[in-house]
Every structure is written in structure tokens, then in C-alpha cells.
Amino acid sequence: MTTAMVLALAILAVTLVLLISGRVPAEVVALLVLGTLPVVGLITPTEAIAGFSSPAVVTLGAIFILSGGLTRTGVGDLLGAQMLRVAGHGEAALVAVIMTTAALLSAIMNNVAVAALMLPVVMDIARKSGNAPSRLLMPLAYGALLGGLMTQIGTPPNILISVAMEEHGRPGFGMFDFTPVGGAILLAGIAFMTLIGRHLLPRRDPAGASRTTEVNLRDRYDLRERMFLMRIPPFSDISGKSLAQCRFGPALGLSVLEILRDGRTLMAPGPDTVVHSGDRLVVQGRLERMEELRGWRNLAVEQEGCGADQLISEDIGIARMILAENADLIGMSLREARFFHRFGVNLLSALRGTSAQPQSLGDYCFAAEDTLLVQGPRQTLKELAQNPIFTQFAVLERSELAGHRELQHNLLTLRLSASGGLAGRTLHDCALGDALGLRVVGILRDQQHILLPSPEATLEVDDRLAVTGRRADLLLLQGLEGLDVQHQLAPEETDLETTDVGLMEVVLSPHSRLAGKTLRDLHFREKFGLSVIALWRTGRAYRSGLRDLPLNFGDALLVYGSRDRFSQLARDSDFLVLTQDVQEPPRRDRLGRSLAILAAVLIPVLLGWLPIYIAALLGASAMILSGCLTMNEAYRAIEWRAILLIAGLLPLGTALEQSGAAHLLAEILTAGTAPFGPKALLAALIFFTAVGTCFLPPAALVVLLVPIVFSIAAPTGTSPEALTMGVAMASASLMSPFSHAANILIMGPGGYRFSDYLKVGIPLTLVVLATILLILPLVWPLRA
């Protein structure tokens, strides 16, 4: 084994580990591979970046734009509505028609786009037909995945093997060379799902989509389990304040759904709605947070308080600095900026111009040229002085602190009494910052001053806490603590829907940039005027703590508020609403143009006048120039993750081939199967591919397998056309929700668990593999 082979196999092994573990984004792994290969000398720098000019990558990017143009002009919507109209209400007929419709669209469009396009349509059909979405959505995803197998542009693996054939000196596959085998697989898949597979699907309806009454929707999400009444007593400190000022969400994790006042019901109140004594609030959340307030009520505010000079020591200092105009913090809140975690210092005060910011620091947003006073270790302050986003940096001496009145104005001293419930608990457990927007910057205990205390610091009786905050925050605490909690709700007090107010389910769109962010980070309620009151994830509903729960692809969000606001949310490209009524209407006036462009792409390719990547590029440009798609929409239509993944891993395939590692792997794979003939070799290869898609993105798997397949074909006398076709057909990703974006997309709306994909996907995969073994040798002879 040569040094080059060892290096190539080592890089391959590390790549597989990183891709399977998911600890590093797949596209980042691909770029690391691209950069490493020329450094170790396996390929030249020119060969390393050749993936970005590969016909496969160019074709894929152009097809994404073409698919986006067809979607925005309503081609898929129109075809889907017409075909689904003939299915009636029978479950078997619906499954067959949904899969057929999705498959036909996926043959000419990106399959993820097809799943996203048809998801609201199928949800509406579930409501009208009385079928649970879980009985229809998995057939939708599988129809989209199987339909893409039928044409050259249907899936990235099909495009990849077509280009690979030409690069290895073989005639490339044509547009419909995939159709005989792919069509047979599709028919077998539809037959299986209609006759057997649908009986393996669960009957779950997380959003009550198959019911017409709002009562059933509440029951499906168990909304009443976390709903209760709170009455505002006379002379309450929160009377006369808006809901935003009361901080029900940030402080208590509660959503105010209705306000009952003088026999009237104010539904879906906005953040500016003012509450008054005597109001009864229908809220949703956990009562445990209310119980924690009982421990905070005995925090006594010292009139004198501690001075700012007590917040510095030999190791801890206070500095003044101005935020630069080009700072990336501008517009962010303290929480969004993760200020303490990023810089290692506490923000004590912020001045804009000559005046301190009137709001609590918890609500403060950074602006250019704000003057910031921060507290931190002196070594950290010295390093911070070198950061270009801060200017006019100066560490303040003890004598200079007295001149900063705004600092004293923003500093409170709280004493823990023996009757309170905080003694013996850590700062983390007390969650003072979450409840009141306060941050403890020092614990003053007898003669000991603990500055910059860690979250694990334990509080003791008579501790004095130096905190950043306002006295108004503590008055708010007293008002929240005095709320009268009533557990029983009358049925009429939980009617959440009227003609003006309602519930709607949304998911993250396939191209969303919001995965990993929280509703608090997104300012969701402030931006859309809607409340997320429940979330469905991996087969269960979550109804509390939603503000700080990172969003994942596949989550279904139950949104509550004014129906007028639903359309605004539907226009946001990061979300996909699961009803057609509020979606942005397609550009139907450009429908003819998009169809003409599609025909202009396909006809020259079928007649052999143009290669697919040139025709697709011209078609993508025409989609934008004709107004079928805007430039921004075109950028959003491209799955950049797939582009970077393929372009970054193609050089690894080159390195495996040139180093001889592909030949070595081919010998290992054929050692046990070659004696049994080409059909056994094909069976082993497609089985390996099908299982591999559970752990690796299909496109990445095919990129890595192609050089090995060609190394297998020559010495065994097997047709490379047959083997590569088998690999492409077996890469449909049916057994795991995380192996393909189409599977993830339907997970939340369908209420699916991981086991549901295994229960249906494994037998369907076996049907697909059996069909490949039966049909492929008839169309593509196995012997070269």
C-alpha cells in the first residue's frame, strides 16, 4: 500500500466519521476535504477546485432555480390541485394519487421543493376528507423521493452519475434513460404503500387537521393541561401596564391567550394591550414558575445600597468604551449578542448621547456610538481594549466611578432574608436574570466580596446582591407575585377561535436560516404579532418553555393570533404555513412563460443539441429575466448545502481514483460477491447504498461510490452503466427522517416518530431493491 493510498483512505475515514456524527456541518466537512487534499499532495490545487465547475454542480444549481420558477408560477400547485380533486375521500385512493402527483412533479422539479409545495395541499385534503395527516404525509414524501428517480434531472445522484459516465469516457445517460427502472420502482412503491404500507402508518393528528372543530385541535395538543386563569387583584403594581411591560413571557414563560374583562373577552391580545385590576387572564404555561416567585418576594431593596467602587478589586475592574459604527453588535439585544459569553464582561450601564437608556438592560439593544460601562477581570479588559469594535477604551479608577451617576442609577442592592426561599440555592437555580432581567455582578457577604460570581455560586442568608437592574423591575415582581391563580376554566373560557382569531400550524421551510435559533432570538411575537403556544417534535407536544427552545427542522409550531397576521407569516420565506388559504398567491400570469422555458430546456437536450448543464443554465437565466422568479428568490431556491457538499467531495473521488485507493476498496467489496456473479455484486452494491443513505447524504454517498464502482466494473467484466444506475436507484433515502430534507419536513405535521420511518421505510426499501434486481438487468445488461 502506497503513501498516497494511506493518505486518501485516512481522509476518507475522517470524512465519513465527521459526516455520520453530524458534529460538523456537512458542507464544512466538504470544504475541509477540498482544502486538505492539495495540501497533502494527493491532487493539484486546480483539481481541488474543479468541483465548482463540474457539469454536475452547474446542472444542479440551475435545476434548483428552474424548480423555484415552476413553484412560484403555480405549475405544481395547479397540477396537484387538479389531480388530487379526482381522489375523493378514500384513503387508498388518496395515497395513490398523492404519490403519483408528487412523483410526476419530482421528475422535473427538486423533490424537496415538491414536498414543501404539496404539504399545505395535503394538509387541507386531510381536513376535508377526515383522514389523519400521518396517513397521507409519508406517502407524499416517498412519492417525491421515488419520482425523482425517473429522469436525469430528478435527483442529484442521477445528475452525478450522468456526468461521471462522460468523465470516464462512456456515453452519458440521457434525460429519460432512468425512466424504465425508475418508473418500475415508482409503480412498485405506490402499490406497496396503497396495499400494505398505509396500514403500517400511525393514526396521529398533532394539529387536529382531520377535525373541523377547534375543541379537537385543543385536545390533540393537550392545550388545556397548561391553561389556567390568573386574576389581577386591586391596586396591583402591574395594573395599567402593557403585556410587554408585565414580562409574562420573559419572566414566567407564560403566554396570555385571552383577557376577560367586564363580561367581554379580548382574544389574542397584543404586546401593547394594557391590563387592569380585576382582569382575568387566560394564560398557558407552567405553574412552577409562579411558585418560584414566592421565594423572590422577600428580596429587600437597600436604600443606601453598595457603591460602584465596591465592584472593583485588584483583579476586577470597570471600563468605559464606545461602540464603533461598524460593530456587529448593532441592533442586537444583550441576549442575542451573548455579551458575557463572548467578551467575558458584564454590561453595567449604557448611555446614548448624554442620557442613560431608560429601559432595563434586559431590553436594551446596541446602537452605534453608545457608551458602555463594563465590569470584568483586568486581564480580560486589557484584551478587550484591542478589539476594533470598541473605541476610546479606558479603565476607570476608583475615584472616577463617583462621576458616573447613571451607573449608580442602574445598580441595586438586594438582601436575602431568612424567610425567603433563595438561601441555599445557586444563582443558576434562582434564574434571577430570566425572571427580572437582572444580572448579579457581586455577592457582598460580611467582609467578603465575590465579584463576577459564577452561576454555581450558592446564596446564603443575609447575602447582599449587587445587581444591574431598575427598581421598577422589583415592583413588577411584586405585582406578578400577587396574581391570584385559578386552576379551573369553564369551557367557554377556552374558545380560542373566532372569525377574526384562530390557530394555524407552521414549519420551518427547507431553506430556512432559523434552525438552532429560539423564538426569543427571533422576537417572534414582536415581529409577527402571533404567539407560539405549542410545538410538536418527534412524536410529542411541548407547551411550555417554548421561548428558549431551539427550533429544529421537522418541528411543527402551533401559532395563535389574529387571522390577519397569518398572511404576514406566510410571506416570510423562513416559514411554511400548512394551509393554502393564507399562502402568498403564485404568479399565475407567468405560468405559460415558465412552462415554455421548461420545454425550451428539455427539447434541445432530448434532441442532442445541447448538454443538460448548458440548457439548464440558459433556462435558469430565462426564469429570472422573464419575471417568473426574482433574483432573491433564485438565491433562496438554490440548496447551497448540496452545492458545497458535492463540489467539496468531488475532489476526494478524484484522489481515491488517482491514488489507487478506489481500486483497493473495489477489491475488498468484490472479494465476497464476485464468485457469485454480477447479480450478486449488484445486490451487494445497492444494499450498501440503501443502508449508507441512513447515515450519509445521498449525494455525498454517490460521489464517494462512483470511483469505486468504476474500479469494480473493469476487472469483473460488469457493465458500469448497470452498476451506476443501480447505485442511483438505491439512493432514495427512505428509512430515516434525517437522511433527506423531504422526510424531515413532514415529521412534525405528521406527528411521526423515528420508529415510524423504520416501520414503513425498511419494507419499502426492500421492495425497491427487489425491483432493481428484477428490472435493471432487463434494461441494462450486467455484462459489459
UniProtKB/TrEMBL annotation:
One of its GO terms (molecular function) is monoatomic cation transmembrane transporter activity. It is a multi-pass membrane protein. Gene3D superfamilies: Regulator of K+ conductance, C-terminal domain (3.30.70.1450). The chain crosses the membrane at residues 92-119, 140-161, 181-201, 595-622, 642-669, 681-710, 757-780. Keywords: Membrane, Repeat, Transmembrane, Transmembrane helix, Transport. GO terms for cellular component: plasma membrane. Its main location: membrane. Coiled coil: none annotated. InterPro entries: Cit_transptr-like_dom (IPR004680), DASS-Related_Transporters (IPR051679), RCK_C (IPR006037), RCK_C_sf (IPR036721). GO terms for biological process: potassium ion transport. Pfam families: CitMHS, TrkA_C. Residues 215-299, 306-390, 399-483, 491-575 form the RCK C-terminal domain. It is found in: Membrane. PANTHER family: BASIC AMINO ACID ANTIPORTER YFCC-RELATED, RESPONSE REGULATOR. This is RCK C-terminal domain-containing protein.
